[in-house]
Amino acid sequence: MVYHGMTMVSMAKPSFLRAEQPLAHDLSTGTSSGSSSSRRRDLVFIVNPKGANGRTGREWKKLLPYLRFRLGSECNISESLTSGPSHAIDITREAIREGADAVVAVGGDGTLHEVVNGFFWGGKPVSKHDSKVPYTTALGLIPLGTGSDFARTFGWSNDPVDAIERLVKGSRSLVDVGVISKEGGDLHYFINVADIHLSAKAGYHASKYKRFGNLCYVIGALQAFFGHHNHDLKIRVNDGEWELYPKVTALCIGNAQFFGGGMRITPNAHPSSGSFEVVTLQDFKWYDFILKLHRLYGGTHLSVNNVLSRSAFSIEVEEVAPTNSIFVQSDGEHLGFLPRKFSILPGAISMIC
User: How many Cβ atoms are within 10 Å of 98's Cβ, its own excluded?
Assistant: First the structure.
């Protein structure tokens, strides 16, 4: 169908840590050029102490002695506590410029999101000051507090000891990053899932209720449904022809699989695939979410009527009739409203996996 030219379509450990494992001696220097096995690695840990209503800060204090025990003999450990929004971005950029071997996000997806954005500046990767050889700072993650949806794609648990063991081993893999652009606006980066309309509006409201843990997503969704209307959107995939998607309820661009506290919304996505999975929900009513919620969480919703999945390297999304009211978010962070373009940056960051 065509619509206006568009196709339709051995030390005491904190109580939350498991039994101690043997001390490993296989601490890797990763893939950074110029590294040697005898050089101590410089690791910067970025912590939002107020995350998860202060739970992240409390757990971090318990974890830090054990982390020093496991890594202190081989690494220089720097602890950086954030003091407000975007602070983690600034800390990350400075750490990379100073030649840190790894910047480790400690907390949930919000902290990880800011750290990832700190890897870039002015549309380019941040690099070490006066580096005469290629040098790559790695990204690390210790899920604390409410945990991490991004970690679920790799099958990682929320046990911080598991995360520390990954740091001890130091194995690296390249992961993709999404970049979001708007005419006349700054670039914004994401590593997990970006989404549009109802789910983004629910995320915006959920952010006000984080003190309730994962229940905040339920509260946010209920609030988002009030006054919600499905909208016709124009979409262009991989710089091709514009297509009409009528009655869109939500559109999700997955670099990874999970969002919203464990909902497997883009079940075929993976941050090493070199492409997004784009999942569109059309003409959903409030009762559809109730009836199909188990399928959304289980990742079995792609066979449901009015659900479309496709792969894309880039996707542009606009309203057919502009209202400046269609929410956009990435990694749970509110970015504003349509229009936006989403593009993949394959292998943009080296991650400790």
Answer: 13
